[in-house]
């Protein structure tokens, strides 16, 4: 009986964690930072970008936005170089996503990335195949509009 009770207790401790995998993730809503980081594109255009620096800011990103005006974006700053795939969970608008290395050189792009209208487990991931440290999200169509390409360098200062 003791052995059965120990097995049952073990199952009760493991089961909530296993069930959590099938539930929608809980993502903390965070207030956006002011769009006061200027990102200069190779064609001379300037994007006013909000910064997402903390884990909570990066997780929330542009969720629940219904629009993103031209000339605006969000710059995600990761703690160090790595592979950072992104998804469009709870995004309501399509975006262009640009991955950059620590020298701000474009290493990957996802143009016209569609919002995910399903459950979290059905949302595909984009990018993250190359080592990057910064990710810039722009209004859909910006990659074509500004003729952005892998190998180009964007100019911005985030204090690191």
Q: What is the CATH architecture assignment?
A: Sandwich
From the 3D structure, determine the CATH topology: Jelly Rolls
Describe the main β-sheet briefly. Answer: 6 strands, mixed
Low-confidence stretches: 1-23
First-residue to last-residue Cα separation? 60 Å
What overall geometry do the principal axes of the alpha carbons give? Answer: globular
* SSE run: HEEHEEEEEEH
Give the overall pLDDT as a whole number.
83
Describe the structure.
The structure is a single chain. The protein has 160 residues and is of the alpha+beta class. The protein has one domain: Jelly Rolls (Sandwich). It is 18% helix and 30% strand. It is built from three helices and eight strands. The strands form two sheets. It has a six-stranded mixed beta sheet. A two-stranded antiparallel sheet has the order 4-7. Strand 5 and strand 6 form a beta hairpin. It is globular. The termini are far apart.
């Amino acid at each position: 009986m003791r052995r059965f009770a120990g097995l049952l207790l073990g199952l009760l401790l493991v089961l909530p964690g296993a069930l959590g995998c099938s539930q929608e993730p809980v993502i903390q809503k965070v207030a956006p930072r002011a769009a006061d980081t200027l990102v200069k594109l190779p064609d001379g255009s300037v994007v006013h970008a909000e910064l997402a620096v903390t884990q909570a800011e990066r997780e929330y990103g542009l969720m629940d936005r219904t629009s993103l005006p031209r000339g605006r974006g969000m710059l995600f700053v990761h703690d160090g170089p790595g592979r950072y795939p992104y998804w469009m969970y709870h995004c309501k608008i399509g975006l262009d996503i640009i991955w950059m290395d620590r020298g701000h050189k474009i290493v990957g792009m996802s143009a016209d990335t569609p919002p995910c209208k399903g459950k979290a487990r059905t949302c595909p991931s984009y990018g993250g195949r190359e080592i990057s440290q910064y990710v810039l999200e722009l209004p859909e169509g910006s990659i074509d509009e500004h003729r952005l390409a892998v190998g180009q360098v964007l100019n911005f200062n985030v204090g690191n």
